[in-house]
Amino acid sequence: MLDGVSLDQLRAFITAVDEGSFSGAARKLHRAQSMVSELVSNLEGQIGVALFDRRGRYPVLTAQGRVLLADARNVVSGVDGMKARAKGMASGLEPELSVVVDVFFPFQVVVEVAKAFRGRFPGVPLRLYAEALGGAYQPVIDGRAAVGIVGSLPFVPPGLTSERLAGVAFTMVAANTHPLAAIRGPIAKDELARHTQLVLTDRTDLSAGHEFGVMSGATWRVADLFAKHALLMHGLGWGGMPVHTVQHDIAAGRLVELHVEDVPPGGLVLPMLAVYPVAAPPGPAGRWLIEQLRDCSATASHALLAA
Known about the structure:
Blueprint: H1 7-19, H2 22-29, H3 33-47, E1 52-53, E2 60-61, H4 63-90, E3 97-102, H5 107-120, E4 126-131, H6 138-141, E5 147-150, E6 160-175, H7 189-192, E7 197-200, E8 219-222, H8 225-233, E9 239-242, H9 243-252, E10 255-257, E11 268-277, H10 284-306
Parallel strand pairs: 3-4, 3-5, 7-8
Antiparallel strand pairs: 1-2, 5-11, 6-9, 6-10, 6-11
Helix pairs in contact: 1-2, 1-3, 1-4, 2-3, 5-10
């Protein structure tokens, strides 16, 4: 009997609840009231459960009806989602969009764009990875991600193409209790070399044989930017961090910006890129997301510089 349950019946049931009456549901569905009543009655007969108490002027959900209402909504929502996704596929829209984001990229920008993405492409699930160095490229190379927002490596691996996004400001910092924090003026590189440097390490082999920004022979290596931040805050070393991740700590005096020899005031700017396979460029949703990240990251970068 349950195999005969139709979407029309479920929609009539849900709409009757939402509108408070069969007549209201009929107006909403542009159907005759008798048809709506019949659909709901047939549904009750097929599942063997009374969904409404009809003894009053208006139908009232039974206890069983309240429980089954959620199931009915889930079924209808699932079918509507499947139809929307199939329609998107037929028009070239991606069935899912997987994106890997470098930990150096401002994640608040990603959040804002993700919120807008949900409104623009409600039928396209978004899968996000957060990685560093070669780890931000690897999911794109092996096909787990369609788009990478990267910047940690000075080269783009073969088979990928890139588009420029706004750069990320990068500066050297140490805790206010660290010996380097007491030095006024530019700090010589040989002085930096006397202290442990905290370095982000690569989970992949893509940067094997390359060192980026390492100025000390004594290093502690971590694969997580938040772990690096925690070690910095406790004075266990010095190191480079994206300015947007430490600006509040610098303003509060918990971290001190180090003025390093041959590094311009305000730190360096790390170029950020959107990368994807040459043979598999992003579809409409991926293209929209890249454009939004470009615009929003540029706005965020300008706001940071103004601050």
